[in-house]
Amino acid sequence: MPHRYVNIPLPPTSKGTVSISVKGGRPVSYRKSEKRTFETMIRDYMRESFPSPVPDGPVELVIRFHVHRPSRLTWKTRPMPPAPCDRRPDLDNYEKMVVDGMEGVVFRDDGQVFRKISEKVYHEGGDVPHIEVMVCWGEPFCMRRVASLMEDP
Questions:
Q1: Quick one: DSSP state of residue 107?
Q2: Are 37 and 101 in contact (CB under 8 A)?
Q3: Phi and psi at residue 9, in whole multiples of 5°?
Q4: pTM of the model
Q5: pLDDT tens profile 61-89
């Protein structure tokens, strides 16, 4: 099983920050419940596509986040290919959410990830926000396929 491609039909959501409050004189950290729910949905999509025993060894990830296209980049008559997104949330916050959702399903621990290539683009016209993920195990196999995933149709 050298590689696997998954299209997750969910709009990208960032990991965000951890909130800290004091309860009973002790600091308690928590994350909003909708963030945990999104991680669970990512995990469920991954379980459908990946084998039951979690593979060991190095893992390479290629992730493309198709975020909501703003009205300033929407036209009625011109083509709307994917365009680079330079707005918040940050790319690394999107990555954290997806990688944490894959842990325990695609790989045992995120320490197995030796290479991660990702980008954040506005979705093309007629499309909806979603996430594309390619996972490769073993040798650096993804580099040969990155062009096909990152290539604009």
A1: B
A2: no
A3: -80, 45
A4: 0.81
A5: 999 999 999 998 888 888 899 999 999 89
